[in-house]
Write a structure and sequence with these properties.
Elements lengths: L1 H16 L7 E5 L5 H4 L1 H9 L3 E5 L9 E2 L2 E2 L3 E4 L13 H9 L3 E5 L8 H9 L2 E2 L7 E4 L14 E5 L17 E5 L5 E2 L6 E6 L4 E4 L19 E7 L5 E5 L7 H4 L2 E3 L5 E3 L2 H12 L5 E14 L9 E4 L6 E3 L3 E12 L2 E4 L9 E5 L3 E6 L1 E5 L4 E8 L5 E9 L7 E10 L16 H22 L15
Parallel strand pairs: 1-2, 1-5, 5-6, 6-15, 20-28
Antiparallel strand pairs: 3-4, 7-11, 8-13, 9-10, 12-14, 14-15, 16-17, 18-19, 18-21, 21-22, 21-26, 23-24, 23-27, 25-26, 27-28
Helix pairs in contact: 4-5
Length: about 475
């Protein structure tokens, strides 16, 4: 009976941890005890998805992000603090080390709280810039809530963000309206190619310090589409760092609030749905690619058969050595993790999944085409002829797209020359027929010459002279 309960407990634990592909230990850094109540709906949504929340103060001396050389938490949420500094366990170097160890961070900002110096240093390290006065907020006189911000215009009403490009998946889209109260503007630099904007401010928005005496902002920090309200960075190890410029957007008040734009129509906000999408992407519940089987083998191509039936496998799977000019087939299985299950991965119409056959540089770069699907994945394949070059080569699939975890799969193989008994015979090469004919003409001419020489001995006459003494 005891072992049955143990197996049941392990199964339930595995089910809970499976909701996030990287773990369910979530640290919430806040020094305001009232934060649990203001964001209780958000905390409840996270707990319903299997996360174990730990609320800690940044000044807690016993707080540690690592234990025995491993992460003590899988994810961190930072709420705004009143103090200008964080504790010794939350220095910029430790936070960067946490990201390097595949930890994920959701950072929230507020125009009513100054940004701690440790957070500012971390953002500068990532090439994310904040207003220098630290009290500025984003104002828009055309896209605001007339119910709550009829005078200040600091509660922006924006539709859920569209896709970044036609070939990029959108994990934050929808038909609803999201309210961003008192947002902090962010400006992304050009030195970090890993940064991506999730929500961009409208062209009519600008950053403004309400404590300035002037009625107009003469030199705003950023204007229009320069302002990023929600920013993200996915590191090369696929760890994710997200900055939400408005922590008030996560409050219970805005999860079910009714807002009114300048058109005068009351609508319900989609903040709760957007918060779920944002936290799910940050904590690796969505946009996660998994690699299944990777195979390569010799192939023979039958041109008379259509489609995939024209390619047949020769030999065994994944050999270590090939010969130049062999026909080779490469297969890879990809799955996409979404919340609690794996599903077959599909490539968008404007995108392509490619295979590189490379030594120092690619000799081939070919599109991988889907040929079949399994219960959890899609098998992509291509067949090609190896180059006329020997050496150490690698099959490589290097797939990096915004909002998707990175894939870099390598399989090294050796490509050799023809063996001595693998070269085609000379009489099978039409270009050699002239030289073969010349050889046999030479042989025949020599035999004829020898025969003529042997059978053409000259006739000698006997001498009639006297024998001399």
């Amino acid at each position: 009976m005891y072992w049955l309960l143990t197996l049941l407990s392990l199964a339930l634990l595995g089910l809970v941890q499976a909701l996030s592909s990287s773990g369910n230990r979530l640290l919430v850094v806040t020094e305001d005890s009232a934060g649990k109540e203001k964001y209780s709906t958000f905390w409840g949504d996270l707990e319903s998805r299997g996360y174990r929340l730990s609320f800690e103060s940044p000044k807690n001396d016993r707080l540690s992000l690592f234990q025995h050389g491993e992460r003590a938490f899988d994810h961190i949420i930072f709420l705004p603090t009143r103090s200008k500094g964080l504790g010794p366990s939350l220095t910029p170097n430790l936070l960067l080390e946490f990201i390097k160890n595949n930890g994920n961070v959701l950072l929230t900002l507020s125009a009513e709280s100054p940004v701690p110096s440790a957070i500012s240093s971390l953002l500068l390290e990532l090439d994310i810039h904040l207003p220098p006065d630290r009290l500025s907020l984003v104002v828009d006189h055309f896209n605001y809530d007339t119910n709550s911000a009829g005078e200040k215009h600091d509660v922006l009403l924006l539709p859920q963000p569209p896709a970044l490009r036609s070939d990029v998946r959108n994990y934050f889209g929808g038909d609803g309206v999201v309210a961003f109260p008192r947002s902090v503007a962010q400006e992304l630099g050009n030195q970090n190619p890993l940064l991506t904007t999730i929500v961009r401010a409208p062209e009519t928005a600008y950053s403004f310090n309400p404590k300035e005496e002037t009625e107009t902002a003469e030199e705003p920090f950023a204007v229009g589409s320069q302002i990023s309200l929600v920013s993200s960075m996915q590191a090369r190890n696929s760890a994710r760092f997200t900055v939400l410029g408005s922590v008030e957007a996560l409050e219970n008040t805005w999860f079910d609030a009714r807002v009114r734009g300048q058109q005068g129509k009351d609508v319900k906000t989609s903040n709760r749905e957007f918060a779920k999408q944002l936290s799910a992407w940050t904590f690796l519940e969505t946009g996660v690619l998994k690699v299944g089987t990777v195979e390569h083998h010799l192939s023979t191509i039958t041109e008379s058969k259509p489609g995939d039936d024209s390619v047949a496998q020769l030999g065994y799977l994944n050999p270590k050595i090939y010969r130049i000019k062999n026909d080779v087939t490469f297969n890879i299985e990809l799955s996409e993790y979404s919340f609690d299950h794996l599903s077959p991965f599909t490539v968008l119409p404007g995108d392509s999944l490619q295979l590189e056959f490379t030594m120092l540089s690619p000799f081939h770069r070919l599109d991988l085409q889907p040929i079949s699907t399994t219960a959890n994945g899609t098998i992509f394949s291509t067949t090609f002829r190896l180059p006329d070059q020997h050496g150490i080569f690698a099959f490589r699939v290097n797939y990096k797209r915004p909002f998707l975890t990175n894939i870099d799969v390598k399989r090294e193989v050796t490509v050799r020359h023809f063996a001595h008994d693998e070269w085609p015979r000379s009489w099978m090469i039409s270009g050699a027929w002239t030289w073969i004919a010349g050889i046999w003409v030479t042989v025949a001419g020599w035999v004829a010459f020898v025969a003529i020489w042997l059978w053409s001995e000259p006739a000698y006459e006997r001498s009639q002279g006297k024998k001399l003494q």
